[in-house]
Design a protein that fits this description.
Strand order of the largest sheet: 1-2-3
Number of helices: 7
Strand content: 15-25%
Helix content: 40-55%
Radius of gyration: 20 Å
Structural class: alpha+beta
Length: about 200
């Protein structure tokens, strides 16, 4: 990030651009796209490309602040229909941050900018060099291991604190296992998943 540039500066600059893009309803170039999405219709390839172009534009602007002008952004559709933007090529560890916290913040900024611009929420996931996919697989392994331990000990197992996205992945990993239940306890930032063996 530029020496005197803060995340707040980035958001403020991008919000000015959003405000300019959405200044008057008569000039709302996303109205038809929004109507299709709200009606539950499948978006056309052109409409999805429009969303991707907006998201990539914002992401490139933010990457430039980190001095990563040459980074590649791969676009593809995720398992649940979300648009995934995977940043590759460059010194990108700073974008992930400790335990993925910087990446979580980047995700929140992109989601906010996209919602402000489009005036509806379209699921866009920002990843860096497949970090979230690797983390997803690791969390699945943690969930299965903890469930096995809970069943073996006929008790409950508390996992370490996780963000909402990671907790959701734990719940989803065990949803088909009838021998355990999962729920979250605590308040952020120490909110965590508890896996309990079902007594049968």
């Amino acid at each position: 990030m530029a020496e005197d540039t803060t995340a707040a500066d980035v958001v403020a600059a991008e919000q000015v651009e959003v405000d300019e893009q959405t200044a008057t309803p008569s000039e709302d170039k996303y109205a038809q796209l929004r109507e299709h999405y709200a009606a539950g219709e499948d978006l056309t390839d052109d409409e999805v490309d429009t969303i991707a172009d907006v998201a990539v534009g914002y992401l490139r602007s933010i990457l430039a602040l980190f001095g990563e002008d040459g980074a590649s952004i791969d676009e593809y559709e995720g398992d649940e229909g979300e648009l995934i933007l995977d940043v590759t090529d460059g010194d990108l560890a700073v974008l992930i941050g400790r335990h993925g916290r910087t990446l979580d913040a980047l995700q929140m900024i992109i989601s906010s900018l996209m919602s402000s611009t489009l005036r509806f929420h379209y699921p866009v996931v920002v990843d860096v060099e497949g970090y979230k996919n690797r983390r997803k697989e690791k969390l699945r392994g943690i969930a299965l291991s903890a469930a096995s331990r809970a069943k073996r000990q006929h008790s409950k197992v508390s996992l370490p604190p996780m963000n909402a996205y990671e907790r959701r992945l734990i719940h989803l990993a065990l949803v088909a296992d009838d021998e355990v239940t999962t729920h979250s306890e605590g308040e952020d930032p120490v909110r965590h998943v508890v896996i309990t063996a079902v007594r049968g």
